[in-house]
Amino acid sequence: MKHKGLTGRWLRWQRGQAMAEYWVTIPAGIIIMLAAAGVVQLITNGLTQTVEGLEYTGSVECTVTTPDEVTGPVYANLSGHTIELVMNVYDEETDTTQIAYQVTSGGAHDISHWMLGLPPGVAKHILWTSEPWVDHTTKADPTTGMFGIKFDTGYDSSDSDSGGDGAEPPKDKDKPGKKKSDVGIVLTGYSARAADSRLVVIHLAGYFEWDITDLGVKASTDVFMGTITAPARRVDPPSADDC
């Protein structure tokens, strides 16, 4: 038969022993929980910084194609006759493009006309040019077989036939006369002769992509062909919204 007093003291002793055994484990558990909480906090902070780094900061750089970026050669030498792209300027306020080719008659015979292979979709946007031109975008030029626009004002590399102002009266009422401008000296064969060089300006409505196009020069009975860069198609001008 058990005594109540002994039972009570026995239970109190067992409880005390249990507390003594588990007391040393309580701090370790707390430390483990705190350490785990620190790791979780570290991971959370890292993810937060990553997300913030991916958010828009307001300083995005946008690279757009500028009008002076062209595709293809900017210079062509056709048996001594040279054509070079020297200007390509787009005006945002007027939405117009102004280009210019330096054309030099330096071959054995003077240039009677030259062709630039602009497509119809570009030629229709021509506002004005510094010299008269003929539309051959849909019907080929009979002397060169090319499609494009033809500049029919001839070149003159000699001074004997020109007047005081450098112009020769037209031989045909429908054909422009020869016009002299910047004159230099070139070597043709074994002799030096004057070279007639002019700046031909083309003013277009809109902004254009560039590509390689055909080029042709008619000099006496000779026809010389080549390629050069030119406006190929009208497109919307680039903007920051295209990024």
Task: Tell me the fraction of residues in β-strands, as a range.
Answer: 35-45%
Output the structural class: alpha+beta
Helix content: 10-25%
Any idea what the shape is?
Answer: elongated
Q: Please provide the count of β strands.
A: 11
Query: What gap, in angstroms, lies between the N and C termini?
Result: 94 Å
Could you describe the largest sheet, including whether it forms a barrel? Answer: 6 strands, antiparallel
How big is the Rg?
42 Å
Q: Number of helical segments?
A: 3
Unreliable sequence segments: 49-67, 159-193
> Can you give the mean pLDDT?
74
Number of individual domains: 2
- Give me the strand/helix succession: HHEEEEHEEEEEEE
Keywords:
243 residues; alpha+beta; 2 domains; 5-stranded antiparallel sheet; 11 strands; 38% strand
Account of the 3D structure:
With 243 residues, this protein is an alpha+beta fold. The chain folds into 2 domains: 4-54; 75-236, no CATH class. 22% of the residues lie in helices and 38% in strands. It has helices at 4-23, 25-54, 120-123; strands at 75-78, 81-91, 96-105, 111-116, 126-129, 133-136, 148-151, 182-188, 191-205, 207-219, 222-235. Strands 1, 2, 3, 5, 8 and 9 form a 6-stranded antiparallel beta sheet that branches. The model is unreliable at 49-67 and 159-193 (pLDDT under 50).
